[in-house]
Amino acid sequence: MIRFFQKTNIVVVYLLFLALVLIPNFLVLFFPNIFENPVISMFEDVSEGALFVMSVIVAPIFETLIFQTAIIFIIQFAIQNKLKRFWLSLIVSSLLFALNHIYSIAYFFFGIYVGGLFVIAYYVAQKRKVSATLFVIAIHMMNNLIAFFV
């Protein structure tokens, strides 16, 4: 699997991660009550444009910097064993990402899944010598863009 990510065109890798991240967004179409997000009602008075900028541009940047870049950097600095730091990064980052999206139990598990994919994407980009932060931000932005219109 690692060899696939190393040999495959980075655009294909990006599209693969995007497809995996989008799976929960399509579940929302079939189970809207389970994935109801009460935070959206807080922004009823906010213009569509401001909501778009916040959810599609600002949130992915800040969340990636906090929940992937900072956490992974600290863990990589503190732990020498590559396998241990990968698993610790995966667990800590995805749990904290999920706790930030705990609108419901379904969203919490959605957050663990997506947060975990973001960590894996981060490590794949790092291995490929591509900006891991920008790679994850791009996936996160596209996910939020599609979710914004769904």
UniProtKB/TrEMBL annotation:
Residue intervals passing through the bilayer: 12-31, 51-74, 86-102, 108-125, 132-149
Keyword annotations: Hydrolase, Membrane, Metalloprotease, Protease, Transmembrane, Transmembrane helix
GO molecular function per UniProt: endopeptidase activity; metallopeptidase activity
Biological process according to GO: CAAX-box protein maturation; proteolysis
Domain CAAX prenyl protease 2/Lysostaphin resistance protein A-like: 50-146
Entry superkingdom: Bacteria
Keyword check for Transmembrane: yes
InterPro entries named among the record's database cross-references: Rce1/LyrA-like_dom
Protein name, per record: CPBP family intramembrane metalloprotease
Source lineage: Bacteria, Pseudomonadati, Bacteroidota, Bacteroidia, Marinilabiliales
